[in-house]
Amino acid sequence: MKIFTSALVTETNTFSTFPTTLRSFEELGIVRGPVADDVLSDVGPIVKQWRRLAAAHGDTVQEGVYAIAQPAGIVEAAAYRQLRGEILAALKQALPVDMVLLFLHGAMVADGVDDCEGDLIAAIRAEAGSACVIGVELDPHCHMSNTMATQADAIILMREYPHVDYEARAVELFELCRAAAAGATRPVMAVADCAMVGFYPTTAQPMRGLVDRLAEVERLPGILSASYVHGFPWGDVPDAGSKVLVVADGDRALAEQTAQELARALYRARSALQPRLESVAQVLDPAPAGPFPVILADAGDNPGGGAPCDHTALLAALLQRPALRCAFGMLWDPEAVAACRAAGQGAQLRLRIGGKAGPASGHGLDLDVTVHGVAEQHFQRAGQLHDPLGSAAWVRCAGVDIVLVSRRQQTLSPTAFTGLGVPLHEAQVIAVKSSHHYYAEFSRLSSNCHVIETGAALSMDFARLPYRRRSMAFFPAVANPIPELA
């Protein structure tokens, strides 16, 4: 068989004032043709798995265009048109193909296109023809549209949050699609809408149990795959929200029935699934007795959801508690990094940190700091991910070690600190810019983890998000929007 693969990945926060441009994709690198395993964060390992499986079957792989951008605001129309056009041009050169495998996010919104993934899949279907099997791997924080579900043959979502299973899901997608292309199965999909907006880490109950049930469902006769669509709360589009996707073998009624059963289980847990954020005072006052380190997550300023990553409220709270040894990072501030690099290691200077990107950034802090470390090319490593962070600096102020970076990215790994020399083992409190992806690596240091309310950009008061385009008939804005699921 001949297989075409490609990727276009970004998550659009429609409330963000930062546009996503072609340069946003170029920052991480746009690969045209074969992609190395160690580039483009998650893309390389996924393509490696598809290559490996194809070789085992004696198939050939034509690799197209791969582009990924850090989450931000709406994608500029010209940028989307260019990347879409390049993917389609690469597909045309590869035709005819038996399978198309795509790695997409699912919550990409461009100026004039609410559903970029659905639009792209439909265009690929038009080029590749009805006989071609199209499979798509999506992030669970996606908007599951009708176009996606009708134009693709099979869609599989990452199951875990943090997303530690993206390679496993890529393998599952390949095997499902190849069986369909060989005529052994006939996948059909059904989607059930739960009328919910939420935030669902899979490391804690009740979401852990709900996710574990998916494996049981997939062992039922006729079920090929089942996925929970978490949805991306900060995307104001009609398709936003939590859903369930089921792929069955030729039996659409079975797919629909199973999707409804899983949707009912998610819906009945809706109150227990609401996020429980804490204040700094609740966690640190009086001074905690341990276990150490205490890990604080600034979910509101998570750049992985499109936030600026230079909000300073949590840092200010740590500075007010000098009795605690703290580490804080990563804060996006290219100007402060440049000042530290110019001053050099060991320098003492007055530095304005954070609060620079816009209204959602809060206020900058004027601090007397000592520069303890600088790096021209800093990175963090999480699992197989080698994540470049640009130039960076480690400064200390009043017992707080602060990591500043020039590339906007959430904190995924302790190496974001230790790679600059920060003595993380001495920290009683570690504060990170992340919602939950930090947990995969930092929970190895401590189970004493807390999500902190800082008043930053990504509000989890979902009922009060300023939606204009999606229906407000969802939980928690409405207590019981689908009575038949209760």
Report on the structure:
There is one protein chain. The protein is α/β, with parallel strands linked by helices and 486 residues long. The chain folds into 2 domains: 2-268, no CATH class; 280-459, no CATH class. Helices cover 28% and strands 24% of the residues. It is built from 13 helices and 17 strands. The strands form 3 sheets. The chain has an 8-stranded mixed sheet. A 6-stranded mixed sheet has the order 2-3-1-4-5-6, sandwiched between helices. It is globular, with a radius of gyration of 23 Å. The chain starts with a strand and ends in a 35-residue tail after the last strand.
Key features of this structure:
486 residues; alpha/beta; 2 domains; six-stranded mixed sheet; 28% helix; 24% strand
By DSSP, the count of extended strands is 17
End-to-end CA span: 46 Å
Shape: globular
Radius of gyration: 23 Å
Total domain count: 2
Quote the average pLDDT.
Answer: 96
Question: How are the strands ordered across the major sheet?
Answer: 12-13-14-15-11-16-10-17
Main sheet characteristics: 8 strands, mixed
* Structural class by secondary-structure content: alpha/beta
Proportion of residues in extended strands = 15-25%
Order of helices and strands: EHEHEHEHEHEHEHEEHHEHEHEEEEHEHE
Low-confidence segments, ≥5 residues, pLDDT <50? none
Number of helices: 13
Per-chain topology:
Layout (H helix, E strand, L loop, with lengths): L1 E8 L12 H7 L2 E2 L10 H15 L2 E9 L8 H18 L4 E6 L11 H13 L4 E6 L7 H6 L2 E4 L8 H16 L5 E7 L13 H12 L4 E7 L13 E7 L2 H17 L11 H5 L9 E4 L15 H7 L6 E7 L1 H10 L4 E6 L11 E18 L2 E13 L2 E6 L9 H4 L10 E4 L6 H4 L6 E3 L35
Helix pairs in contact: 2-6, 3-4, 7-8
